[in-house]
């Protein structure tokens, strides 16, 4: 009898265990996973490849003959199959503007930022409203600006571009007079982002050409010629919140607000320019996705930009629009606190460390940036620029980047590239932690090697 | 005793069942799925939304207030929340070039074409080789050409663009003389793809301008001026395998091979032009991904194109490069048989049906295309063009698209858009099955309504 009982009991147990296991998996959802399963396993396997915290493996990384898995792509100065080897004689690369300081944020938010794309996703040229622009993404962009308070979007049009890069020329094109005898003069204030000139020049347009420094046109009385002024705020390289210099009926302004996010600056007030350009690259750190947008007041300018973007590339890849949508959903979760606090804290700490070192030096100095009240953080937020704009103070140090290279094996971007003196050099603070640490170490050695402390 | 035995037996069974279930899931891999799980469930849920086979829901589709799921986006002439309503008075839209005829292929290959993207995937501007181009993707592109045999890639350079669209002007830019007094003349043979002129014009470059029909320059003796000839093979709209018309030291040729795939034409031999342009849009059907590539013989031209692409958009979105990589892996599975047989069969059937209807008509005729030996299928393959180039034969039917619209509610693209007579109209055969069926029905009604059969 006892055993009959236990038999029944065990049979019950058997059923309940099976049901439980089935239930657990159904809850987890895997029970339903079908076509996405293999891709998910593949992606997680690649993500699991250890590159010693000094590199990463990508789904589309190089696969060496005989291997199945992609190779580790190591940070600067790290090598070996798993990026565990530190390369001692390697230079600290503070040259580029890769916003990898945000990469750890996305690794911490792996689940919410993961994206699964079906093979038949958005094959068409157009969205259902017959445009090249995802309505859902446009909605989220307006939301992000309203919670950050860094730009007015009410009653404005929004166009998408392949990063801010494509939008810069789309705006120059749209603001230039068509079929005019005199081309528009495109200008920017020194020091300025080199692409303004390089890009304006390469198109060799009848409608516009680059004319250099804004100040040369300050007292221009020739109202007959259109002028297009690039205003970069915060400015690349020096982080200043520039304002338009030129005014008048013949002056159009393109406000490049790539860096106007709480990571890099206090937000004193929402930007309100006629043409404002933003990019995902400096908001989420996804430079590779090539996604940017312009906020445009005037409908005719918006139409001309849209036509330009249609004939140049037929709009922005639907794949990068989908990716941007997913990333902005994470940005918006919790009112943006997570990413902006992470971004601002990281950049502030880096700036403080850089400042501490340079303040010990007689030979070098950094740009001065005053803390401002940030309407987003609702407090005076510490300075946190994307770049250090370093100056060599010694008379003989006319070529500052050469000095850094020779004396400390540091690669910066020379001032002349920004149409400033070579006495200046731009040091990137937005790259990976490895890059920043290396830069800081080499600067420390260099400065501590100076004869005598600053105030002796 | 018996019951003790059965008790033991049942306990064994219990263990083995549990182990089995665990094993199954471990095999399936779900056991390990972590950060990708939620995204996978979300994507499969959206894919499972039924739109009655006459539409689809997308991950980035519009979400109406109060709803959680995106709306169904219905095919032309279908409506209602689940696209089940047929809209009787709706026009058959044969206007656009959306390559949705391949969508069912990707739905059939859901598992192999699914893609999971990690939030931190490729945030950088550059790949590890410091370029804007994925080496793995370039490898696959060369493989696809070698198995299809439609282009020589040995000792050629490959550049990527946002669809062929961006590459057209990149090539014109690279082939134009810089700082020359006389701009290059850009020409194409009528009927030609309108973007050649519209795009060349919008940049208003000092270096080049559009000069219309190639034939006007056939006997040009002015070797002092550079000429850039667009050669489209197969041609859009008429599907002819065009060859270069102009030759000489002052002539450069851009070979637009967007349609040079077994879906649309026999492949007589590998294309061997100096500058050849291809696009994912007409190979896999993913027009929305905006991915194309150019195969370039000369290094200097390749360098000029690369510089142009860098300053225009800083290369192609890493997201669309990743997507293209995944799709080309599916294309290459089984030597491409799956997709090219599907594509060719679909297009051949559509052409046969269209021909059958039009052959009954006295009022309309179609372009003549001869079957050719296809080196890929290794047989004479049936004709399967992307477009019907319809002619109105009646003297009074001078505006053929207007005739189709008025008499049968069919929207085609008028001949004049291709710089041909409006007596011609382009009918798209590459759109969804719904679009094609609708077109065919309306043509059937129209032709059967003609007084008397053709040969009476």
Automatic annotation (TrEMBL), chains A, B:
Q: Which GO terms describe its molecular function?
A: carbon-sulfur lyase activity; transaminase activity
Cofactor dependency: pyridoxal 5'-phosphate
Residue stretches making up the Alliinase EGF-like domain: 34-90
* Stretches assigned to the Alliinase C-terminal domain: 92-447
Q: Which residues form a coiled coil?
A: none
Q: Which Pfam families match?
A: Alliinase_C (PF04864), EGF_alliinase (PF04863)
**Signal peptide boundaries:** none
Q: Where are the transmembrane segments?
A: 6-25
Task: Give the GO terms filed under biological process for this record.
Answer: amino acid metabolic process
What InterPro entries does the entry give? Answer: Alliinase_C (IPR006948), Alliinase_N_sf (IPR037029), EGF_alliinase (IPR006947), Ethylene_sulfur-biosynth (IPR050478), PyrdxlP-dep_Trfase (IPR015424), PyrdxlP-dep_Trfase_major (IPR015421), PyrdxlP-dep_Trfase_small (IPR015422)
Keyword Metal-binding in record = no
Q: Keywords, A to Z? A: Aminotransferase, Membrane, Pyridoxal phosphate, Transferase, Transmembrane, Transmembrane helix
**Alphabetical list of PANTHER family matching this protein:** BIFUNCTIONAL ASPARTATE AMINOTRANSFERASE AND GLUTAMATE/ASPARTATE-PREPHENATE AMINOTRANSFERASE-RELATED (PTHR43795), TRYPTOPHAN AMINOTRANSFERASE-RELATED PROTEIN 3 (PTHR43795:SF20)
The protein's assembly and partners? Homodimer.
State the family it belongs to: Belongs to the alliinase family.
- Protein name as it appears in the record: TRYPTOPHAN AMINOTRANSFERASE-RELATED PROTEIN 3
**Whose protein is this, by species?**
Salix koriyanagi
């Amino acid at each position: 009898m006892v055993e009959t009982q236990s038999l029944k009991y065990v049979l019950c147990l058997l059923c309940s265990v099976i049901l439980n296991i089935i239930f657990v998996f159904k809850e987890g959802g895997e029970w339903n996973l079908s076509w996405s399963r293999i891709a998910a396993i593949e992606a997680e396997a690649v993500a699991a490849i250890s590159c010693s915290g000094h590199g990463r493996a990508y789904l589309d990384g190089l696969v060496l003959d005989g291997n199945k898995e992609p190779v580790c792509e190591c940070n600067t100065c790290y090598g070996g199959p798993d990026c565990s080897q530190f390369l001692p004689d390697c230079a600290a690369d503070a040259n580029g503007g890769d916003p990898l300081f945000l990469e750890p944020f996305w690794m911490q938010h792996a689940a919410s930022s993961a994206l699964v794309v079906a093979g038949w996703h958005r094959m068409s040229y157009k969205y259902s409203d017959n445009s090249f622009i995802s309505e859902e993404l446009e909605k989220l962009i307006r939301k992000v600006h309203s919670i950050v308070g860094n730009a007015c979007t009410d009653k404005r049009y929004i166009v998408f571009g392949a990063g801010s890069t494509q939008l810069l020329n789309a705006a120059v094109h749209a603001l230039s007079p068509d079929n005019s005898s005199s081309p528009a003069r495109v200008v920017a204030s020194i020091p300025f982002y080199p692409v303004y000139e390089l890009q304006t020049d390469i198109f060799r347009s009848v409608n516009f050409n680059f004319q250099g420094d804004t100040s040369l046109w300050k007292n221009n009385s020739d109202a007959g010629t259109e002028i297009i002024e690039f205003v970069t705020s915060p400015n690349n390289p020096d982080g200043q919140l520039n304002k338009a210099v030129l005014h008048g009926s013949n002056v159009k302004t393109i406000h490049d607000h790539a860096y106007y996010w709480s990571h890099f600056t206090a937000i004193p007030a929402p930007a309100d320019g006629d043409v404002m350009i933003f990019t995902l690259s400096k908001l989420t750190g996804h430079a590779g996705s090539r996604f940017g947008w312009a906020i445009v007041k005037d409908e005719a300018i918006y139409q001309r930009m849209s036509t330009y973007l249609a004939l140049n590339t037929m709009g922005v890849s639907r794949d990068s629009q989908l990716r941007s949508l997913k990333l902005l959903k994470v940005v918006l979760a919790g009112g943006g606190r997570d990413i902006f606090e992470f971004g601002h804290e990281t950049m502030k700490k880096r700036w403080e460390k850089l400042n501490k070192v340079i303040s010990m030096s007689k030979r070098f100095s950094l740009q001065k940036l005053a803390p401002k009240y940030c309407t987003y953080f609702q407090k005076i937020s510490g300075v946190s620029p994307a770049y250090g704009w370093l100056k060599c103070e010694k008379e003989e140090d006319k070529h500052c980047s050469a000095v850094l290279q020779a004396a400390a094996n540091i690669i910066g971007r020379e001032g002349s590239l920004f149409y400033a003196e070579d006495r200046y050099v731009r040091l990137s603070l937005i790259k990976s932690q490895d890059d920043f640490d290396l830069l800081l170490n080499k600067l420390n050695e260099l400065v501590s090697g100076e004869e005598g402390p600053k105030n002796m």
